[in-house]
Amino acid sequence: MKLLSWLPCAALLFSASVAAAASQSQSIDRIIAVVDDTVILQSELEQAIHMAEGEMKDRGIAPPPMDAVRSQVLERLILMRLQTERAKEAGIKIDDRELNDVIGNIAKQNKMTVPQFVESVKAEGLDFTSLREQVREQVLVSRVRQKEVDARIVVTDQDIDQYLAANGSDDQTEYHLAHILVAIPDAATPEVREKAHAKADGVLKQLRAGGDFAQLAITNSDSPQALQGGDLGWRKGGSLPTVFANVVPKLAVGDVSNVIEASNGYNIIKLVEKRDAGERQTVSETKARHILLTANTIRNEDATRAQAYELYERLKKGGDFTELAKKYSDDPGSKNGGGDLGWQPPGVFAAEFQQQIDALKPGELSQPFRSQFGWHIAEVEERRTRDVTEEARRGRARQSIMQRKDAEEYEAWLRRLREEAYVEYRLGGDKSDSSPGQTPTPAAS
């Protein structure tokens, strides 16, 4: 069971409030980093490392040296802490009732009851109370990202037109990518840039010599996906970061790019898989109409049902559906149009209503039936199959542009958070101290 598979950006964020695993409960806790006005404890780092090792095992990645894992995990904890603190500053809260609903959904996704889920968590050596707080923080991070990043992203029709003009039919191609980033701060000196470039060149040389991409990502990458072996998952061509858009389509599956310089640092991309999603799309639509009768203080449930059957008999004898709907229907949305519901694809209506109209032939009238809204009499007028390829194409373009803009904005926002923060390391030799802005960790989610 993958406990964190449901979480937004779970692959790149670890909790800053997780207590030590049961096997580590006897160890003496100590502060290993100061982040602005808060601290990160040894127990939190050890538990996050424990979870990172589990993620690597699930992905089949052989763990690199522990120093590399520890450094990567600590940076993720710092980023998580900065984001949760920003969420608190913005007044974002997740109360226990909402948290219980989220936990219930996690259990359901794992095909368990909540008690079964609790026992499963304990069986994996994790503390459930601590996991609850981790879930709370993940939701906080998702909310603050929505507020400060996602809500500011706008995609216009002009953006879509330009995207389609530039990509043509290639926008159907999807790429499974892996990524290594050697980051540089925004105001990096030439010396810092040169050192980072040399490191990226060294990593590329190891890759060309047959080095394992996942291990080298974990050991060297500053990307939040580092602990997942740099795995970016599937990306549509149009949602690729701008700096990769001209490189990725030219790679063959299995190829590794040259070092790509960008504002965030030096990047290396591997094309893991490639697929084409360019099939034409159609949808079957139904044009239907209905009369809805709902019980009220004057007409109880039995009387409502009786009236529905009375109207049904009138319709069978040639009564005018439009006139009867205008006079008797309680549906304010369709009443004035004679009950007309327009052309609709499957899944728009409530399940009980959809099931009834799906069973009707064009021109056929249903018997009265009940849904959560009341008693219906429905009629299917026509059916058609419509080509929605262009609509779907524009929809995918909008989504791709949104993803690309969101990733770039989130990267910039995270980098600002990291560079503006005061971070002091107390690892006992790894990184003794720090000042605001040291070791930025951009994102490419």
Structure, described:
The chain has 445 residues and is α+β, with helices and mostly antiparallel strands. The protein folds into three domains: 22-148, Triger factor/SurA peptide-binding fold; 165-279 and 399-425, Chitinase A, domain 3 (Roll); 282-387, Chitinase A, domain 3 (Roll), CATH 3.10.50. Helix content is 43%, strand content 18%. It is built from 13 helices and eleven strands. It has helices at residues 42-58, 66-89, 96-109, 114-123, 128-148, 157-167, 190-208, 213-220, 242-245, 301-316, 321-328, 351-358, 389-420; strands spanning 31-35, 38-41, 173-183, 231-236, 260-262, 265-276, 282-293, 340-344, 369-371, 374-387, 423-425. It has a four-stranded antiparallel sheet. Strands 8-7-10-9 form a four-stranded antiparallel sheet. It has a three-stranded antiparallel sheet with strand order 2-1-11. Helix 2 (66-89) packs across helix 5. The radius of gyration is 28 Å and the shape is elongated. The two termini are 23 Å apart. The relative contact order is 0.13.
Write a short abstract of this structure:
Helix content is 43%, strand content 18%. The chain has helices at residues 42-58, 66-89, 96-109, 114-123, 128-148, 157-167, 190-208, 213-220, 242-245, 301-316, 321-328, 351-358, 389-420; strands at residues 31-35, 38-41, 173-183, 231-236, 260-262, 265-276, 282-293, 340-344, 369-371, 374-387, 423-425.
